[in-house]
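Request from the bench team (R.T.):
"We need a structural guess for the complex before ordering more flavin mononucleotide. Sequence and SMILES attached. Just send the tokens back."

Command: build protein-flavin mononucleotide structure.
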Amino acid sequence: MWYLFCEQTTEDRFKQNFKVIFSFLYCLRFQHIYSLTGKNIVNNFERGICVKIFVLHGSMFGHTEVLGNAIADGAKQVDGCEVIYKSVEEVEPDELKDAVGIIWGSSGIFGEPNPKMATFFSKLGQLWFTGALQGKVGGVFATTSTQHGGVENICRALQTPMQHHGMVLVSNAGPVNADRAQYGNPYGATAVIPVETSQEAPMNKPNDTEMQIAREYGKLVATAALKLHQ
Ligand SMILES: Cc1cc2nc3c(=O)[nH]c(=O)nc-3n(C[C@H](O)[C@H](O)[C@H](O)COP(=O)(O)O)c2cc1C
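Reply to R.T.: structure attached below.
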């Protein structure tokens, strides 16, 4: 072996090294698409794909914020999506220009979105005028304290501004099963959270199934946004 090595000229050795390096780089090129098992081994972020999903809550006392958190968690599961979770009071309308998907939610006040949401909507005139949100993917979420307290109506009311802005709405599709029959909502992610019995009582939260459906919805909207973007 050593003899063979010594026999090689510098030019031979250079050629051989070049072949090895070239083969290595060639393999790397394909590694970006498939591993040997045929599975994608390079994630979207590594391939430079990163779209922004905004999840915005208009929560008065924290209940809707908890539900929104589950939606944001679900959206974060989608490879290639960066999720920004904020209150509608914290977000500057211009920030939404960067979004590919926007999911906003509110609690219900007598069957309508609460004043925080109304104030937020009133700031979106410039975005509408310039068509800045057109084509972005949208979803909604809502909470009330009673089963027939208007939670579906709030979802519908939250969708209307999205339609004015020319956004593409994602319904809350999922498996047809008992959980969704009881806690699902075709218009968005929702939770019916009973009012606390006293001011000292810990805050009531969405139940596990409502949280799970919210996570699934966040994932669904983010996936749709990513696909539409590509
Ligand atoms: C002024 C007011 C009106 C409300 N109206 C309704 C209602 O019509 N139906 C209902 O089920 N809950 C109603 N609620 C309860 C809230 O929608 C519910 O507690 C919600 O989960 C609060 O969420 P938040 O803490 O994120 O604001 C009302 C609450 C307030 C303060």
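Two things stood out. The chain has two domains: 2-31, 51-229. The beta strands are 51-58, 81-87, 99-109, 112-113, 137-144, 168-169, 189-192.
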